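User: I'm putting together notes for a lab meeting next week and I want to include a structural view of one of the chains we've been expressing. I don't have a solved structure, so I'd like a prediction I can at least talk through. The sequence is below, exactly as it appears in our construct file.
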Amino acid sequence: MGSTPTVPTKALAGRGRGFLWPSETLVKEAIPSVPTFMTKKDLNQIVLNIEFLLISVVQGVALAALATSAAGPIGSLQIEYWLYIVAAFLFILTFWSGAIIHALSFIDWPLDLKHSFFYFLASFVEVVAFSEMTIPLKWFGMITVFFIVAGILYIVDLNLIKQHKKEFEESTSGKQLYGHILHQQTYEMNVLVPAGLIYNIVATALIYLYPEIFITNHYHIVLVFLQVLFGLLILKNSITSFKRRSELITNSLSNT
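Assistant: Thanks for the context. Below is the predicted structure for the 256-residue chain, given as structure tokens.
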């Protein structure tokens, strides 16, 4: 039989009822210290992970709803509704890319629940709109509601951006990044969102007032075609903004 391992005598604090008790030093070395609190950096990463998960989930649900709603018009070759499918897909891409840009720019601890709740609401309106893509009046009506929700979300996010202003003023690159964030937010909030809202209100009114022209004679295709063009414009703006924002974020990180 092998020999029984021994404990160095210096590690023994004393004896008691036949047991050998390790010294306090040996215990501290054997058990690593555990931090009591998380750092601000840890909390920021948790919030960012939650934000990415939320964005992926809500837009994943919207994409699934779109696929379900698009199956009918595609399978039955209802070509007049295919542009609605394209428009819906552009909405998803635009929402997702815009949300990612916002998350990388100013989302951190503490988690803002109002901001998150509006993501759920916007996704809900998207799903309802996608289910009505073969009924132009309801489609444009629900997209109007979507732009209203988007407008409120932009206001909430603008307040979040302003709350982080001091964090960007520590360096020149940080100030440039903040300037770009603020400029894009105000431009999209004051130009793109109102333009989309007004257009969809007008389109809804035209279909409601003149159903024979836009439904019976299928001129609703012209309205959704213009909506697709607008969607492409917004998506191009998002891609350009993301590219520039990425460069500024990289410069800001290299100077910290």
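A couple of points you could mention at the meeting. The beta strands are 12-16, 19-22. The longest helix spans residues 172-209.

User: Perfect, that's what I needed.
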